[in-house]
Each structure stands twice: as structure tokens, then as C-alpha cells.
């Protein structure tokens, strides 16, 4: 028979726990970049790329901070930095795409607007 234990046993010496926020940051930034690429041919995605990329960047910052404060107990710093960089680059590209879509939709409506005057 097994004995009931109050808490799980500690991890073996020398093993590090990967920070969960670092992994989620990488996944969120990846989804943000993917939806940004999909929004090039489908305008209906709207602000989803921007939201996912900002979330990925913020979680990357938080994960890196927690990993640095853990004193070597947690790993995943490279994942956190990758998620942070992908999130920041994706957010900038998302903002550029939003601005360009607003400009181009205004340019498409311009001939109809100008036709009222001549």
C-alpha cells in the first residue's frame, strides 16, 4: 500500500524547473505572429495579433524577472527572452499594419468623397 503524503517530493538535485510564464510567453508571441501573418490576407482578425503579442512580451518580461530572482532554481530564461522579443516585434508590426489598413481604407474611400465636389 502507498502512504499518503502531504506534499510532493522535492525535485532531484541538479534539476531545474522551467518557468511556466516563459513557455506561455513564447506560445502567445508565436500565436500573435501567426495571426499577424494570417491578417495580411484576412482583415477580419483585427486586433488579435496586437493583443497576443503584447501579452507575450509582458509575460516574457515577468518570466525573466522571476527566473533571475529564483537564484538558479528555475530555467527558461532564453524562452522568456525569445517570447519577449517576438512579442515586441510582433506588436510593432501589428501597429504598423493597423495604421496602414486605416490609411488604405481611407484612400479607397477618397474617390467617392472627391466625386461629390466635381
Concise summary:
With 118 residues, the chain is mainly alpha-helical.
Question: What would your notes on this structure say?
Answer:
With 118 residues, the protein is mainly alpha-helical. It has a domain at 27-107. The protein contains 3 helices and 2 strands, in the order E-H-H-E-H. It has helices at 20-39, 48-69, 77-115, and strands at 17-18, 74-75. A two-stranded parallel ribbon has the order 1-2. The longest helix has 39 residues, at 77-115. The protein is rod-shaped, with a radius of gyration of 22 Å. The N and C termini lie far apart (92 Å). 29% of the residues are buried.
What are the SSEs and their pairings?
Blueprint: E1 17-18, H1 20-39, H2 48-69, E2 74-75, H3 77-115
Parallel strand pairs: 1-2
